[in-house]
Structures are given as C-alpha cells and as structure tokens.
Write a structure and sequence with these properties.
Blueprint (H helix, E strand, L loop, with lengths): L2 H19 L3 H12 L17 H6 L12 H6 L9 H24 L10 E8 L2 E7 L4 E4 L4 E2 L3 E7 L2 E6 L4 E6 L2
Antiparallel strand pairs: 1-2, 2-3, 4-5, 5-6, 6-7
Length: 181
C-alpha cells in the first residue's frame, strides 16, 4: 500500500484515539452545575424568569394566526402540466402519452440491455500470499476483491492486469475494462 496512505491512516487513527480519551466538556459542565444548584432554586438561576414577574407575561408564547387562503390560480401553478389542460384535451393527451409509452416499452424490450457503469473505483492493489487483492471504493463502502469474485451479484472480476481490471457484467455477459485511478 502507498506509504502516504499508511501515514494518513495512522495519523487519523491516532487523532481519533486522542479525541476519544479527552473528557466530555458537556457532561462535566452539567455535573458541576447540578452539584452547585440546590433543589428548588430553578427560579434563581441566571437568565431564568421567575413566575409572576412582569417579564413572565412577555415570555409567554403568543397565539398563532391561521395561514392565509391560497389563491386558486396559485395552486394551479404547482400542478403538473397535463392537469392544467381542459378536460376534453386531457383525455386526448393521456391517450397519446399511453401510445408513446407502449411504443417505447416494445422498442426497449427488443433492444439489448445497456451495460451500466461500473459502480466502484479501483483505488489500489496488493499481493498477499501470492494472490492479488484489489481495493474498490464506492460512496457507500470499500471492497477487497480477488480474481473470480462476484460483486453485488452482477459484476465478476475476471483479470487484474497492469493499469486495468477486466470485469464482466453478468446479466448480459459483457466484458468491461476498468482503468486504475
């Protein structure tokens, strides 16, 4: 693994351990305040408003006013375009949309499925006990894989070559080359 990566990993782990052993200032403050305040002294705390004082009346919540009525035309601005048509044109537009959707569905059923982009970035590799481990990263996780492994039930790692991986999209058995980053 890259020396700079090891240094970064080690320093972030050391920083996390150092932060975890520091005392939590919020619990210490709460404990100190709760020890120093006698029971029943809540009205005497700094910033507290004692009941019956003139400031207590102004600190009370105010009554809410209802929302204003919505203008009928303003509501139509938020509706989808197809709902803003008159009723007679709405039926014709729906029939045309349904016909277009059916034509698109039949065309896509006859066309082969497109291979999606490989969901991982190849971030490195290392040889361990004579076998090459590859490190793949996605926004959700980090994966350690070997030749022949199947990822997410859709991708198979076929070969590891200098500078690229040979991956196969299993639903259509399509080979994909992934370059190193």
């Amino acid at each position: 693994m890259n020396r700079a990566l090891w240094i970064a990993l080690w320093s972030s782990g050391a920083a996390a351990m150092a932060v975890s052993v520091l005392p939590d200032p919020t619990t210490d403050t709460v404990a100190a305040v709760s020890r120093d305040v006698p029971r029943g002294a809540a009205g005497r705390l700094p910033g507290a408003v004692p009941p019956g004082s003139p400031r207590a009346a102004t600190a009370a919540p105010t009554a809410r006013t209802p929302w204003p009525e919505i203008d009928a035309m303003a509501g139509r601005a938020w509706a989808p375009a197809s709902l803003s048509l008159p009723l007679s044109q709405h039926a014709a537009a729906s029939a045309a949309q349904a016909a277009a959707a059916a034509a698109a569905a039949s065309a896509s059923a006859s066309a082969p499925a497109a291979t999606p982009p490989f969901p991982y970035a190849w971030i490195g590799q290392m040889e361990v006990e004579g076998r090459v481990q590859i490190y793949l990263s996605s926004p959700q996780r980090l994966v350690v894989a070997h030749e022949g492994d199947v990822l997410d039930a859709n991708w198979r790692v076929d070969a590891v070559m200098p500078g690229r991986l040979q991956i196969t999209w299993l639903p259509t058995d399509t080979p994909v080359a992934v370059a190193a980053r």
